[in-house]
Amino acid sequence: MAAIHITDIEAAINYWRDRSPSPDGITLAPELRALAEVYALMVYHHEDEVSEVGFPRKAWAAWLEWYRTTPDTPCIAICSTSQGDDQCKGCGRSFAEVQHWPAMTPAEKRGTWRRITMEDTAWRFNKYAERARETEHVWPDEPASDTPVTAGD
Asked: Is 54 helix (H, G, I), strand (E, B) or coil?
C-alpha cells in the first residue's frame, strides 16, 4: 500500500491555512483540524509516512483537495523510456511508473514525486542551458577561448 509522507501533510496544512485562515488565531477550519490530528499522531509516533489505508475520512478529503492543486505528472515531454532507458532522463520516473501512471493512486503518485524530487537528477529539475553545458566538449586541437589568436597563427 502507498503511504503519504509527512511533508505532503505539511503542504496540505499550509494550503488550508491560506485558504481558510483562523478568524481568531485559535480556531481551526475543519479541514485543518482533521489534517492536524493526523500530523500530530505522526509526530508523536515518530513516523515519516502514514498509509493511505485507514486515513481518516475528513483528513483524506482535505488532503485530496490539496493534491488536486499539484501537477498531475512530472513529465516534461522528453521521454527517454521510449528510447529504451529504464529510467526517464526527462522526468526521473521508471519505465513501469511511466506505463502505470494513469492507474496509480494519488498517494502512489506523490511517492514517486517525492523520490524524483529527492534524487534531483531528472532534467525537469534543471534548465536547458545546464543540460546543454553537460554535453559541451572542447576538441583537443581547438585553442582555448581566452587565448588570443595572432596574425601568424
From this structure: coil
Cβ neighbours around 62 below 10 Å, total: 27
Measured in degrees and rounded to the nearest 5, phi and psi for residue 24 equal -125, 5
Question: Grid coordinates in use for 11?
Answer: 503542504
Q: 95, exposed or middle or buried, with CB in 10 Å at 0-12, 13-18, 19+?
A: middle
Residue 53 grid cell: 489505508
pTM higher than 0.90 for the full model?
A: no
Q: Is 24 exposed, middle or buried (0-12, 13-18, 19+ CB in 10 A)?
A: exposed
Distance between CA atoms of 151 and 23, rounded to whole angstroms? 77
Give the model confidence (pLDDT) of 34-67 as tens digits.
999 999 999 999 999 999 998 999 999 999 999 9
